[in-house]
Structure formats: C-alpha cells, structure tokens
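Let us work through a complete example step by step.
Step 1: write down the sequence.
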Amino acid sequence: MISETKGAEAQETVIGRDSVDYLLQDGTRLQLELWFPAIAPLSAVKQHKDYSFSVSLKKILVDISGMPSMTISTKETSNGLRDVVAKPGSFPVVIFSHGFTSFSRQNSRQLEALALAGYIVIAPSHPGDSLTTEYSDGTIVEIDRSQDALKLTSSKANTSKLKDEIAKIAVESNQLRKKSTEQYLLDLPQFVDGTIYRHYVTSAQRRRGHLVQLVSQLIAKDPQAQDTALADADLTRIALYGHSLGGVVSVLATEELNREESRVKAVVNLDAVQFVLPDENSINLSTPTCFIMGGSTKMGKTKISNLYLNSPWAKANKDVCEINVTKAAHNNFTDLTYVTPLKWFGQLGPIKNKAFGDWINGFLIAYFDSKLLGKHYSYPIWPSAELVGTI
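Step 2: predict the structure and record it as tokens.
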C-alpha cells in the first residue's frame, strides 16, 4: 500500500470493494463484483476486510464438487475494503470471467493486484451459470443443475460416461495440436462438436452475450454505473480476460465487440482451448491476445494437457501469443490453489503455487499496461515456459 497525506490525516492507497446489481438490455440481472483503487485513513486499513467465501457459495461448492466442507472457510478474508472512497482519477477497466462451475471471486488475489496497479476490475456473476449469484436484496440464484456439462462433470455424475468423454478428449486434443494451422482451423468446429466441449456451447453463448451487453452499456454511459467506482472509469481502455470457459468467452466477446470499432484493447485466455461457436465459422483475433496454457491437469486417472492447443492462433495472427507452462495444472491459474487442502485432490501441478500466482499477476499487469496504456517494459515469462508468437 502507498501512503498519502490529506491535510494532517495520513491516507493509504487501498483496494476498494463493492458489489453492484446490473440490469442488461435483454432483462438479465448480473451481479458485479468490483475492485478499484481507493483511499482510506490508516485506521480503516485495520478494520474488517471482505470475505472470500459466503455461506451459500460454500454449500453449493461442497455439494457439486464433492470436496469436504472443512476445505473451505467462510472466515477467510481478502485484502479488499468496503465502504472506502474511490481514488480520484480515471482508471482503465479489466473485466474478468470465471470458469465453468465456479464463481466471480475465484481469482480474487489476482483482481486485487490489478486494482492496486491502477485498474478498475469487474467480475460478473451470471445467474444460472455461476455457482451462486447473490443480489443486494438477498436473493440468491444457484447454478442451473440441468446443464449437460454440469450433469456430466459433477461429483454425482455417471463416472463411466465421464471416463469415456475424458479418454476421447485426450486422444482428440493430442491429434489437434499436431495439425497445421490451416487444418487446425478447419477441424476445430468438429473437435468441439465431437468432444466434451459441445456441452459448454450454450453456456458460452449466453455468457458471451452478457459480456457484450455489459461493455456496450458501460461505453454508452449507462446511468446504472453512476454512484459506483465505474462512474469515472476510462472506458476507452478496456481489457477482458478469464480462466477456462471464462477465457474462451472473453475472446469470443472481444471479437464481437470489435467487429466495427476497437472497443476492447486486449484479451487473455487462461488455460482453455479457444473454440469457436456454431454461429460463427472462425474468429479473426484482430485484438492483442495472449493464451497462457498449462499441461498437467488430471481428470480421474487420465492426464489432459492444454499445451500448444492455441499455437495455430498465435502463428496465424500478429500480436497474438501463447505461453506454455508444462508443470502448471488447470487450477494453478486460479486463487483456489492457495487453499492448501485442495492439494489432497490431485488438481494441482508440481509448480510452486504462490510463486506462479505472483508471476501471473505481474504478467497480467505488464501485458495490460502495454496494450492499454502504452507502457512498455520487460517482464519475463515463467522459467522453463515456451513462447509461441509475439507478446
């Protein structure tokens, strides 16, 4: 934190937190979690901080994932402070999209780092797609459990069917990554339709629509943003990024938003094969894009690797990069790795969790500083990682 002086009272630059209900044009009510640069007296820094997990979120996470209740604490505090004053100035905006069967605060330490670096960060909860969407009036909407992808992958799923799907995607993805760029782009829709990814298409389409509407309404100076930290946001400088399905959706939404004008300046996909949807044959990736991929995720007894699955995008487009981190597992790209008991479930790779998390945070700040603010400075990729394309 950075100390400032306001008269005789010492002030701190802190991470502000807020939760805002937000109505989209199609009638969907999102719940937006906000992180932003703020100022507060020194005494406020020691006050009660924001909680990472609500009771309702813990309940459904335990139910769907099958994790023991003791692995999740509703007393874990974040570094964000509520009821503090937004720091004067106009700050660029980063919108984060969470993974499937996850929640808006899954990367909270990352979002805090971005806010402290001078970004206003928005993480939407999508009713029916997020584990929980918790509105200001106390209403809670849980994830729609009738979704095919959830029925297939939850702790109560048909394990033999899931094993078949996992085995198939392991074979298909290995074949896909070996193809030429031209053949890859031709075969990608068939890969999605013929594997477990087909079950995520409806959710991806819905969430893409949410992000497109959200960005469009903010740029149009939607009055809902007034009296929030978004009121003075610099909406000429917007970036999107996400993890897993959220990374896929972030790229798809960026492509739609930028078809006629450059409204999103950069996008990052954390560890997901960038598939296209049935309503489009391809995507151009005309926006600066970076894929950061891992390679050691275990699903049951089968090891699935995302390494190099987006290399054709990086090779075929300028200002597109792919960073491949062999020892990182899928959940290493989230803050869930800081919950120590999760290591019992074999979901993490052999990488050093906190060190890797700190690297991702620093890389994202450097990448967005470069693409949104024109601040170009050297920031190394993860040791032993391989870069495809250009950053």
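Step 3: interpret the result. The chain has ten helices and 16 strands.
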